[in-house]
């Protein structure tokens, strides 16, 4: 393992999930024991191990799931449903703002504050308030099928709901990135969905300079959804969209172990270590594929830190 050489092209590590850990001082951080999708390391560990892996000058974006704010405060996620959506959004927004304040205080210049906000309905409602989103550095908006069902009891989103909700979210001036656009596509959607059904969304994103996330943790595995996404990526590149390449970190332990297997004794080691290692081994192949689809150093924002920050500045001006 140590003989394998890898150097990340990223100067900005987008889409990370982490716990606050010691930043909460005496407050006890709570995590759902059954939630395997929760972050498995603290923000301090992410910065420490991620810097060793990606380099001293790397910039991180902190984009945890809003619902985890409820988990860690010991509040049931049903606060988002059962007619109390407004209360749930208010509580989540307060927690997201608190998190951002702590990160600004402890990691100035290293970590951009942000969130991976959920798209809750066809109207593009998000589970963090606009006022809180406006105070953050980076906002990713993602469609998560299970969150949608939680907020809309008894309803299953259709393929039209899926695309239309992202169209609405992409028009929110505080949304910078659409996260894993094809990540929660259902098999039934793909039976009738065509790439051209997404053209209006891609045009909206291009007009608003909203970036299209290529989520490498999903992309490298391939499959029907990724074959569909490749068609969208090509169309998006042709329409002049910006892209971010992300690894959607929930645990850096597999990546840290790959870099230095003697430095992970105190961090949870993911059970999918081998699949993460395989992803890195295929990384150059993935980049070659993406170049063939129209991605390059000019439209991949997080290859260059200055390019990324200039894009954010232009969006926020």
* Count of distinct structural domains: 1
Helix content: 40-55%
Count of beta strands: 8
Q: Could you give a short account of the major beta sheet?
A: 8 strands, parallel
Spatially, the strands of the biggest sheet line up as 3-2-1-8-7-6-5-4
Question: In percent terms, what proportion of residues is strand?
Answer: 5-15%
Look at the helices and sheets and give the structural class.
alpha/beta
CATH-defined fold name: TIM Barrel
Mean pLDDT: 83
Rg estimate, integer Å: 19 Å
Order of helices and strands: EHEHHEEHEHHEHHEHHEHHHH
The separation of the N and C termini measures 46 Å
Q: Outline, from the CA principal axes?
A: globular
Which stretches are poorly predicted, pLDDT < 50 over at least 5 residues? 1-6, 263-274
- Tell me the number of helical segments per DSSP (H or I, 4 or more residues long): 14
Task: Briefly characterize the structure.
By secondary structure, the chain is α/β, with parallel strands linked by helices. Strand 4, helix 4 and strand 5 form a beta-alpha-beta unit. Helix 1 runs parallel beside helix 11, helix 2 crosses helix 3 and helix 11 packs across helix 12.
What's the SSE blueprint?
Layout: E1 12-16, H1 43-54, E2 59-62, H2 66-72, H3 85-106, E3 111-112, E4 114-118, H4 130-134, E5 138-142, H5 145-151, H6 159-170, E6 177-178, H7 187-190, H8 199-207, E7 211-215, H9 216-219, H10 224-238, E8 243-249, H11 253-259, H12 273-281, H13 283-292, H14 305-316
Parallel strand pairs: 1-2, 1-8, 2-3, 4-5, 5-6, 6-7, 7-8
Helix pairs in contact: 1-11, 2-3, 6-8, 11-12
């Amino acid at each position: 393992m140590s003989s394998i050489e890898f150097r990340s092209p990223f100067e900005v590590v987008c889409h990370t999930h982490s716990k606050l850990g010691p930043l909460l001082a005496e407050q006890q951080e709570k995590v759902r024991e059954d939630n395997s999708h929760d972050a498995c390391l603290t923000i301090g560990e992410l910065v420490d191990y991620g810097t060793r892996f990606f380099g001293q000058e790397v910039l991180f974006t902190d984009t945890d799931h809003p619902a985890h704010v409820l988990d860690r405060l010991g509040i049931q996620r049903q606060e988002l449903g059962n007619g109390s959506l407004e209360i749930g959004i208010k509580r989540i927004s307060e927690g997201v703002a608190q998190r951002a304040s702590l990160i600004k205080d402890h990691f100035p210049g290293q970590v951009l504050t942000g969130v991976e906000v959920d798209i809750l309905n066809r109207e593009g409602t998000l589970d963090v308030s606009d006022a809180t989103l406006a105070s953050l550095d980076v906002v990713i908006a993602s469609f998560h099928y299970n969150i949608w069902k939680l907020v809309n009891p008894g309803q299953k989103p259709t393929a039209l709901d899926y695309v239309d909700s992202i169209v609405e979210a992409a028009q929110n001036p505080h949304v910078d990135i659409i996260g894993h656009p094809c990540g929660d596509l259902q098999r039934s959607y793909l039976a009738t969905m065509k790439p051209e059904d997404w053209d209006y969304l891609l045009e909206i994103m291009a007009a608003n300079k909203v970036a299209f996330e290529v989520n490498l943790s999903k992309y490298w595995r391939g499959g029907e959804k990724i074959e569909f996404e490749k068609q969208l990526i090509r169309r998006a590149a042709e329409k002049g969209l910006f892209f971010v390449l992300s690894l959607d970190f929930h645990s850096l332990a597999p990546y840290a172990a790959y870099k230095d297997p003697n430095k992970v004794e105190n961090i949870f080691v993911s059970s999918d270590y081998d699949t993460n290692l395989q992803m890195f081994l295929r990384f150059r192949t993935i980049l070659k594929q993406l170049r063939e689809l129209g991605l390059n150093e000019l439209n991949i924002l997080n290859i260059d830190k200055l390019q990324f920050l200039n894009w954010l500045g232009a969006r926020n001006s």
